[in-house]
Amino acid sequence: MVFEEDVMLLVSMKSFLISIMILCLSFAQSHVNESAHGLGNYNVPFFKADSYRPNVQPPDEFLGFTLGSRPAHHDEVMNYFNYLDKLLDNINLVEYGRTYEGKPLVYLMISSKRNMTNIKDIKNSISLLSDPRKIENSKTANKIIKNTPAIAWMAYGIHGDEISSTDAAIQLAYQLAAGDDSATKKILKELVISIDPNENPDGRERYLQQLLQWRGEVVNSDASSLDHSGLWPYGRGNHYLFDLNRDWFSSVHPETKGKVSAILNWNPQFLVDSHEMGSMDTYLFNPPRAPYNPYMPKTIFKWWDKIAKDQAAAFDEYGWSYYTGDWNEEVFPGYGSSWGIYIGLVGILYEQSGADGSIVKKEDGTITTYRETVHHQFISSIANLQTIANQKEELLRDYYNNRKKAVSTKNAGKAFIFSSKSNKTRLNELGETIKRQTIEVYTNKNDLKLPKAINSSGETVTRQNIPAGSLIIPLDQPLNILINNILSFDIRLDTKSMEKERKKLLKNQGSTLYDVTAWSLSHAYGTDSYYTEVMPKISLKPFQAIPNKGKLIGKDPRYGWAVKSDDDQFYHLVGKLLENKIKAWCAKEGFKIEGEYFPRGSIVIRNNSNKNMKVGLLKDLASKYGVDIFAINTALATDGPDLGSSNFTMLIEPRIAIISGPPTSTYSFGATWHLIDYKMKSRASLI
Ligand SMILES: [Zn+2]
Questions:
Q1: Which option is the CATH number for 31-406: 3.40.1790.10, 3.40.630.10, 1.10.540.10, 3.40.50.1820?
Q2: Shortest CA distance to 148 belongs to which of 281, 16, 21, 268?
Q3: What value of ipTM does the predicted structure carry?
């Protein structure tokens, strides 16, 4: 029986749903009139085995434009992926995060029907291989390796102005969803494939808007024109203009946080990170060139050769130009492909010369169309998936063996240790950042003495006291290579490569290193850091970041209040005090008063200068920011300057402006903006 009220509810729900659908349709249709400058006369079919199941709508039909004739917008990608997800039961579309601008970040997981029915078991089996401590004997491992598909992670569009790979992701999803040929079936049988079509939707949409803004009636093949290059701040970075392809282990941004967690949750054996380069170039793929990171697993070289051979053969079928072993190296672990290598998978980089959604005239007068660039990215992806599908067992075996080495007794007793007595916020953030990589982080309940260790300056220390609550990261765990890579204090490259580097630099021939040459989370966070190979056997508990509880220490002070400057949260608190019109003085030198030491930079709030100040506000801010505020009854210091001296400077509430536009570096601007706006939550005018 249906009650009238329920009927009314159903009717109103239905009309609500219809209006939502109309809204979605009109949203999807909002791009239909965009000019399709990228097609040119390129009409080569994307895939030679042109055999597709008719129940799946091809992208051209669904989207209403020829794929590659112009770049697809993020909402168009989402519409098509949602459509495939609803249509087919061998597809799972998963949202792993939202960008700063609220756009969904997703991966589409696809495999054979049989595999997707057993996806939970597959995930469990792979997770056992990823942590050999959980596998009883080699028989169990062999069984898993034989019977379980490998996992491939295909990531596209991390740089928002390198756009062709996102369109290729659409074609790849269609190929795997509808392809009826034997090659596609083999891929789906041997692999579970995750497609992340757009790692940086905010950057891509900013760039597409610029291309659209400068696009004329006449198709323009000049790559230096504004309708190809765009204007400051361009499309490379995310909303706050960070380069997400340097963020894989520092994981500052929601795009990285979500993606890294999703990847580490599935433990793939293969990862592609797909890019674009200068318009006059051709196509680059791995192997990279030297120098090599000293922690690089030896097995990777074999895989790069296998994969490159097949990818080259696939390109040769079309007569396309490409090259390997040039300008790219995988030394820094913060790039997608290299980060992948150091978590133990086969990491691959693609670099396609860009056509910017249009066409580009090359030096020899030939034209590269956007559709052709999409085609290159698609063929690369299919070729790679075929290679690893054909050698799935070897791929899983290498993965397992590398992880087995990591947890071997050879690494027992080795550990990194980080401590900070006064900046708990910093230590918590470091702990959370390391944990986000699924690295096991522990903490000590009581103080401990390290018999022997090396500190972050490279000095040997003995009987080093480590306070309770420090971070302890043992090295005999599955992500040993990543730990060494991101926590070591000073990673050195081999002498031969450095001699070559020196010669090149002296001849003004540029560096052999593509970009970042030094990194270390230990140095970046500035904690007290140690590496030991003789970690005492004490009971440790898993680290859990517990935020400070700030409070007022003492009450009704005669003179005023003081706040210590050593915790990172101090700066947030000071900003809010000034916003609340509280007058505060900053100490140029450390001082001691009533038994408490206040380091340089600490602040004093004088009662007489803040007659209308409410103690309740101080209490709220202390609690919100987790910083203690001390009651002070005298201006007389027992050490350092007295509180009325000129060693205290009155702080003035800042009116913040951040300079933007050329020639300001987009990174410097973005990092400053992110700090003040996103982290400090302070207002800034962008000028
Ligand atoms: Zn790139």
A1: 3.40.630.10
A2: 268
A3: 0.99
